[in-house]
Amino acid sequence: MKCNMYYTYNINIDYVTGRLALLSSELQILYGLLCCERMFPNFCQFSKEASWKSPEALRAYLDIIWKYIEGKKPEKITSLTLDNLMELAPDTEDNAKFQSVLTSAALDAVSGPFELLKAIAETNDFVTSVANTIEISFDSVEMYVSSYYRTNENNPSTPLKINKSLTTYIDNPLVDIRSCPTDDPWSIITINHPIVHRELTLLLTTLNEIESGKNLSYMKLKYQNNKYGSLCYWNQNHGSFEYR
Fold first, then answer.
1. What was the pLDDT predicted at 167?
2. Cβ atoms of 4 and 183 closer than 8 Å
3. Degrees (nearest 5) of the Cα angle 139, 135, 115?
């Protein structure tokens, strides 16, 4: 049976780890934390939709990581700390309880800080843990777009229809693009989708900002006070960022 040719794309881990290796451990963790800050509003929205755990509980764990980066002495990170953090994550297999399209994104918003706190607790291999966090950040966006459009493919009101047969190359070294013969175009989310494109762009520009020596206070203000998560889109009709 003949297969169509589509394109897969993933984070270029070799490229990411190569650049991370040149940064201090604090800046490595900072990069991962800024990815987590972009995922945090997604958890807030899920919490609101599903009447789930308090976003303030997750914020407390992000603040522990900020303390580490700022050179303050955070409380000791134990296995109980990590277990309590993961208690905030919804069970993505419990479809009866969690029907929100943001369920996986909420899990990702918890998994990112978990990776970083575990690395800080063990004080080793920050590069791998941060790279994992970056992948979680990207996969969170990709999974959301995929699940949303799978659910709403035949809905005429669905915005930003995906071109399922063509992927436009984006000039971003963070991306590893490969051709892939497949019969399921929905297994591939095109790289030129606006939300996916924006996430990849932010991943690169954030790393560039850190390497350029941007002031930590500036970075914290810019990312921590951003109430629009990585899954928001710009609604031109309403003139605002919204979740679908």
1. 47
2. yes
3. 115
